[in-house]
């Protein structure tokens, strides 16, 4: 087993009765049994992902999900456009927000957006409630600006993705987060947007200013869709956070290279197009950048790839 349940002894006793001989529950730590457990875990994850994809592509299931959400939340119409926001950070550093969009129960990835948190983070701190409020404010300020644009319907206008408000705005969290998002939307004068929070632990649905959550049936298509939207927002936020953190750590490594000033650091990044590509470059490729000699190129290479220091270039 990957971990022992709280009722491990009772479960082992029950399994022993079914089998007719003693059953012992263990968590494998090493060797073949550990490898087997990891293989089983990967296979289970793959099977779950395939099940989710099949279920999400079913039009009837998606229609039932939207109807379930409408009924559970008491909405006037089915939420054809759902947006969800999440925040990701590690101990208050590299704080980012994500916004994902689902239309008709399917992800609309062209409308996804990242947010670098500005006001609600800094000095190693992060207030999740304030971060949710900041992302919400920026998203709906963009909506108000786009809505008032006289060229909104012009075919030459490149993006209209935030000109229209969602029918349902979901935040990852409970009462504090949903109340913060709702307060911002009310302050901006945006109407006809339902706001809810989906708390991870018990999958409770929170609505603004209500003391108790809505409990949707565990097997309902509506709850499944809300979970999928929330999990997608979390995945998107985590991916951006890791990228931002990696870029910062790599840039910090460049700061330690002797004789590499800001001008030449910028020249390196400009030449390769990104920190990630610079990290994969060989010493010879780095030397090709004007103003970068062999010694400096070697120092840059070793700073970005310490595991390969001294290896053939």
UniProtKB/TrEMBL annotation:
Q: Which residues form the UvrC family homology region profile domain?
A: 6-185
SUPFAM superfamilies recorded: RuvA domain 2-like
In terms of InterPro entries, this protein maps to:
Hlx-hairpin-Hlx_DNA-bd_motif, RuvA_2-like, UvrABC_protein_C, UvrC_RNase_H_dom, UvrC_RNase_H_dom_sf
Give a yes or no for keyword Transferase in this entry. no
GO biological-process terms attached to the record: DNA repair; SOS response
Record keywords: DNA damage, SOS response
Where does it sit, as one GO cellular component term?
excinuclease repair complex
Looking up PANTHER family in the UniProt record yields: UVRABC SYSTEM PROTEIN C (PTHR30562:SF1), UVRC/OXIDOREDUCTASE (PTHR30562)
Name the record gives this protein: Excinuclease ABC subunit C
Task: Name the species this protein comes from.
Answer: Mycobacterium tuberculosis
Report which gene this protein is encoded by: uvrC
């Amino acid at each position: 087993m990957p971990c022992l349940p709280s009722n491990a002894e009772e479960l082992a006793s029950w399994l022993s009765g079914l089998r007719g001989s003693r059953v012992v529950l263990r968590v494998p730590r090493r060797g073949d049994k550990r490898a087997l457990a990891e293989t089983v875990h990967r296979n289970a994850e793959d099977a779950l992902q395939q099940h989710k994809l099949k279920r999400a592509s079913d039009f009837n299931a998606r229609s039932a999900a939207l109807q379930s959400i409408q009924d559970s939340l008491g909405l006037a119409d089915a939420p054809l456009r759902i947006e969800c926001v999440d925040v990701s950070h590690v101990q208050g550093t590299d704080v980012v927000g994500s916004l994902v969009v689902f239309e008709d129960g399917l992800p609309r990835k062209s409308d996804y957006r990242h947010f670098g948190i500005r006001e609600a983070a800094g000095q190693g701190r992060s207030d999740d409630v304030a971060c949710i409020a900041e992302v919400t404010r920026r998203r709906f300020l963009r909506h108000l600006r786009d809505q008032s644009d006289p060229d909104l319907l012009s075919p030459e206008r490149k993006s209209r993705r935030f000109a229209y408000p969602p029918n349902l705005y979901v935040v990852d969290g409970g009462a504090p987060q949903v109340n913060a998002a709702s307060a911002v939307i009310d302050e901006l004068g945006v109407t006809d947007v339902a706001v809810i929070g989906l708390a991870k632990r018990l999958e409770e649905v929170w609505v603004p200013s209500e003391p108790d959550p809505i409990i949707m049936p565990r097997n309902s298509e509506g709850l499944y869709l809300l979970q999928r939207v929330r999990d997608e927002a979390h995945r998107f936020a985590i991916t951006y956070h890791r990228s931002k953190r990696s870029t910062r750590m790599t840039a910090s490594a460049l700061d330690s290279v002797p004789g590499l000033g800001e001008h030449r650091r910028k020249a390196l990044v400009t030449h390769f197009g990104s920190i990630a590509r610079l990290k994969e470059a060989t010493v010879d490729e780095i030397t090709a950048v004007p103003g970068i000699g062999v010694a400096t190129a070697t120092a840059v290479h070793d700073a970005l790839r310490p595991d390969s220091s001294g290896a053939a270039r």
